[in-house]
């Protein structure tokens, strides 16, 4: 049973209580019915309650001619309510799904705007949640997908909150009529070729005619699945804790997990733990693509399997799996002269190199492995570099980026590797600080 429209302001204020100390509330304002009601509610609540500063954000996708007039409409609404408006124009990348591409462009824009301790308020409601559940069910989603839209989540440096998920579309329409609000009717919302519109106009009305409480019960199912997802997340944290062991190559700053700890789990727990871990790194694979994990996990010990995902790759080396993206996926090839070894050397796309202790005589040069290198190692004489790297179990993906210190044709040292990175007798040591993830490796 829907609650009276007159309760909407108090219900909204109650749901926003935990966020009253935020620095600013941004409202995702499309100009449509839902966001217009949300903006109107917040603007009027701000007159009688101490709320954070309000700011409306309108994303202009530029996908249809009619949309060019929407920023002006949004500005007039905001002017009337006394809420500042920020219009952001985005470029929607072409792809198989226009809906997905527009959503990604929109949320990328929101992420760029939202600062620490700020909140983005979005106006999705209970009917939207039911549509989301049906849409994802048709796509074969698992528990995470079928839990629907979360009420809150992190967004960039701030948070996203959906305060109207317990409110029906009918309640919003009644509020808009009572307050004589004007809003934009997006023509594309009637286009049945878009899956969500088809569900909204063709499927849900038939279901509601047969089961009047369908929207409410589907939202309840999404909440149950959300609780199940929380339990699966807790299980994933337990399983990942045993796989986040110390590695000799932690200094690389590359995310990695111990393979043996994962392999001891059931297949379902492996997928659950990896999904949780990968979610922060890449778009998750669909069900069929998970065979790539099995191939990587079960490959022969001397193999170098790779599982290619949307934003990077998983490699297996040294009894671990490693997440590689960006520059880690290509070797560094450019030789660099080191004219002043007393100063750190910035390597193109490969971090920084420094020499500690007594500096070797020059002229010196930094090169990268090409194959066939030989190095003098103490009383062991000359040894193939490949064999030396194998002895130290250096992961294959690192070998093409390890800085090699040369004097003429002589290989003097390999950065960061024990017994190879310098000379105890001559008192020097070569230290390499790879680019961190924050510096552009993912």
Automatic annotation (TrEMBL):
Keyword Nucleotide-binding found: yes
Which InterPro entries does this UniProt record tie to the protein?
A: Lysidine-tRNA-synth_C (IPR012796), Rossmann-like_a/b/a_fold (IPR014729), TilS/TtcA_N (IPR011063), tRNA_Ile_lys_synt (IPR012094), tRNA_Ile_lys_synt_N (IPR012795), tRNA_Ile_lys_synt_subst-bd (IPR015262)
User: Under which main EC class is this enzyme filed?
Assistant: ligase
Q: Could you tell me the keywords of this UniProt record? A: ATP-binding, Cytoplasm, Ligase, Nucleotide-binding, tRNA processing
Where does this polypeptide localize? Cytoplasm
Where ATP binds, per the record, is at: 30-35
In this entry, which stretches build a coiled coil?
none
Catalytic activity, as annotated: cytidine(34) in tRNA(Ile2) + L-lysine + ATP = lysidine(34) in tRNA(Ile2) + AMP + diphosphate + H(+)
Q: Which NCBIfam families match?
A: lysidine_TilS_C (TIGR02433), lysidine_TilS_N (TIGR02432)
Summarizing the function annotation, the protein's role is:
Ligates lysine onto the cytidine present at position 34 of the AUA codon-specific tRNA(Ile) that contains the anticodon CAU, in an ATP-dependent manner. Cytidine is converted to lysidine, thus changing the amino acid specificity of the tRNA from methionine to isoleucine.
Q: Output this protein's name.
A: tRNA(Ile)-lysidine synthase
């Amino acid at each position: 049973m829907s609650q009276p429209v007159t309760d909407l302001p108090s219900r909204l204020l109650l749901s926003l209580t935990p966020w009253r100390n935020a620095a600013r509330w941004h409202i995702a304002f499309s100009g449509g019915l839902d966001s217009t009601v949300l903006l109107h509610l917040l603007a009027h609540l701000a007159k009688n309650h101490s709320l954070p500063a309000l700011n409306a954000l309108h994303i202009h996708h530029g996908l249809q001619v009619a949309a060019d007039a929407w920023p002006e409409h949004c500005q007039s609404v905001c002017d009337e309510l006394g809420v500042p408006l920020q219009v952001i124009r985005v470029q929607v990348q072409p792809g198989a799904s226009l809906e997905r591409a527009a959503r990604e462009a929109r949320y990328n824009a929101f992420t760029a705007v939202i600062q620490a301790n700020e909140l983005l308020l979005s106006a999705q409601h209970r009917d939207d949640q039911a549509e989301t559940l049906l849409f994802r069910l048709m796509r074969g989603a698992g528990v995470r997908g079928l839990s629907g839209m979360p009420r809150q989540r992190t967004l960039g440096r701030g948070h996203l909150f959906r305060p109207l998920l317990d409110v029906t579309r009918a309640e919003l329409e009644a509020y808009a009529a009572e307050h004589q609000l004007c809003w934009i009717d997006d023509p594309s919302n009637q286009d049945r070729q878009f899956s969500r519109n088809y569900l909204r106009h063709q499927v849900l009305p038939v279901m509601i005619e047969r089961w009047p409480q369908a929207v409410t019960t589907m939202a309840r199912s999404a909440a149950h699945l959300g609780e199940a997802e929380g339990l699966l997340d807790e299980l994933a944290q337990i399983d990942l804790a045993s796989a986040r062991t110390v590695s000799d190559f932690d200094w690389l700053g590359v995310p990695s997990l111990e393979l043996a700890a994962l392999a001891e789990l059931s297949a379902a727990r492996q997928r659950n733990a990896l999904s949780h871990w990968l979610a922060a790194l890449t778009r998750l694979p669909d069900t069929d693509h998970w065979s790539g994990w099995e191939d990587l996990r079960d490959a022969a010990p001397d193999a170098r399997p790779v599982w290619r995902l949307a934003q990077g790759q998983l490699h297996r080396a040294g009894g671990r799996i490693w997440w590689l993206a960006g520059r880690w996926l290509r070797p560094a090839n450019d030789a660099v002269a080191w004219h002043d070894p007393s100063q750190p050397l910035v390597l193109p796309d490969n971090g920084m190199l420094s020499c500690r202790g007594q500096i070797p005589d020059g002229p010196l040069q930094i090169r990268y492995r090409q194959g066939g290198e030989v190095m003098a190692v103490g009383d062991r004489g000359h040894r193939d570099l490949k064999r030396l790297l194998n002895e130290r179990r250096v992961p294959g993906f690192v070998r093409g980026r390890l800085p090699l210190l040369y004097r003429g044709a002589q290989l003097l040292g390999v950065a960061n590797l024990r017994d190879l990175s310098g000379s105890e007798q001559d008192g020097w040591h070569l230290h390499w600080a790879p680019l961190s993830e924050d510096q552009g490796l993912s």
